[in-house]
Amino acid sequence: MKRLNTSNALLDDAYDFGRAAAANALSDIWAMGGKPVMANAVMGWPVDVLGVEAARKVMEGAWKGQKRTSPCIGDSDYLYRQRESVAVVY
User: What is the number of domains present in the chain?
Assistant: First the structure.
């Protein structure tokens, strides 16, 4: 089973946004009766507006948010977007 879940920033804190994105993707897998094994994270981020440090905090939150459930983030990628978003694939 593979699932792509995109989350737009609804939280002011970058770290919390990352954790929420990971939790949202994980809950979709569990709801379909699946077991998460590995995750790929894709970040759309306006670096010139929000900066690299905020992007790093989002990815840190996503990593720590999913770490308790045992899947690893096997890959990550970045694309420039006007609006911030994180897609986590399980």
Answer: 1
Residue-range definition of the domain harbouring residue 21: 4-89
pLDDT tens track for 6-62? 777 677 899 998 888 888 888 888 898 988 877 777 788 887 888 889 888 988 888
Residue type, 68: R
Q: Facing residues of 5 across strands?
A: 88
- In 5-78, which ranges are continuous DSSP H helix? 14-31, 47-67
Closest CA to 55 of 22, 85, 20, 24: 85
Q: What is the pTM of this model?
A: 0.73
**Do 90 and 2 contact (CB within 8 A), yes or no?**
yes
Dihedral pair phi/psi, residue 39, rounded to 5°: -125, 150
> Residue 81 maps to which CATH number?
3.30.1330.10
